[in-house]
Amino acid sequence: MTGTGYKAPPRVRPEIQQAVFALVKQVGRGEVASYGMIASLLPGVTARMVGHAMRHAGTDGTVPWHRIIGSSGMVSSHEGASRQQTLLTDEGVTFSKSGRVLWRLHRWPGPMPDWLAESDMDPIDVSEIMARWP
């Protein structure tokens, strides 16, 4: 922690980063998920770690980093925020006048069955986790 109150994000091990990327790839065009939603499906992963991974996702389009937003429904303020909002708008994501994504219209419905099978997570546990999402 520095004197500004900023706490640097934790280092994300490569295998965690790859797990985050695999899950983020499940979020389709016109859908959004929060950092916390992604983290909630990956044991031991925090929303801050997901954010750190997204900063290293690259811009080649293989990982749709722009579809991951803050739990408030707003694009987090960062260097690429304007580009992120443009990419989302281009995909049909709508925002309220206050700049929040309309969750009821664009919330990611959750991972595909193939991801669930590979994750070894109990589908009932996943349903309970998803019930707490915005």
Automatic annotation (TrEMBL):
Q: Which InterPro entries match?
A: ATL_DNA_repair, MethylDNA_cys_MeTrfase_DNA-bd, MethylDNA_cys_MeTrfase_DNAb, WH-like_DNA-bd_sf
Q: Residue limits of the Methylated-DNA-[protein]-cysteine S-methyltransferase DNA binding domain?
A: 16-93
The protein's UniProt keywords, in alphabetical order, are:
DNA damage, Methyltransferase, Transferase
Q: Which GO terms describe its biological process?
A: DNA repair; methylation
Q: Which Gene3D superfamilies match?
A: Winged helix-like DNA-binding domain superfamily/Winged helix DNA-binding domain (1.10.10.10)
GO terms for MF: methyltransferase activity
> This chain belongs to which protein, by name?
Methylated-DNA-protein-cysteine methyltransferase-like protein
What organism is this sequence from?
Eilatimonas milleporae
Q: What is the lineage of its organism?
A: Bacteria, Pseudomonadati, Pseudomonadota, Alphaproteobacteria, Kordiimonadales
